[in-house]
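Is adenine placement plausible here? Inputs below.
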Amino acid sequence: MVGIIAAMQIELDLIKSSLDNVEEEKHGGVTFYKGEYKGRQAVAAVCGIGKVFAALCTEAMILTYSPDIIINTGVAGSLSEGLHILDCTVAERCVQHDMDTSPLGDPVGMISGINRIYFDTDKYGADLLCDCYKSIGVRPVPCTVASGDVFVADEEKKAYIRDTFGASVCEMEGAAIAHVCYVNETPFVISRAISDGADGDAQIDFPVMCKTAAERSSKAVLEFIKRYGE
Ligand code: ADE
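Reply from A.M.:
I modeled the complex. Tokens:
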């Protein structure tokens, strides 16, 4: 079974409406949509915005459904000159850019306890997701995703995240989902289409581009559900 998590309804709409035999269930305060796509089992949820909502949704999904893999789909801000609005990305790894215990001597971004900065995505899943993008005529960009409880909309913050973590994409959930998946030994991947440049225009571009960008990622995710484990 493939688990799908999106932060916002608009990022899940196409996937949810494409599932057959949908059963709606609530666990841990999260509504899950369990169904099938082209005969393959899937469970999907809108987690809400930010790392805490993402984490609690991921934990509830894993405990209830034991998905073989979790895919985080949605939109993101670009931190890189080469990544434009509507470009699509597949994460190789992700990091929580707002995790900072550096005053205690730790490297910035390091998560104490598990003592790691980056979470690698599942190699099989990421390769398959790239193939799925290609099959719908999109060339995806492999990237490092930086997540934090911040909507990035200025050049200074953008440059800090890019330069500190080598990240080319920012959003608010992926690395929290990764953290929970890591603890639970569940493979995960992240599919994000660019809605804005995480710059001074981000608050204008984001609402305008969100739906179109989200649907580009969703189309690849639907392919992924169909092909995962083939
Ligand atoms: N998701 C989409 N655009 C974003 C941005 N600029 N910052 C954080 N999350 C985002």
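Short version: The chain has one domain: 2-227.
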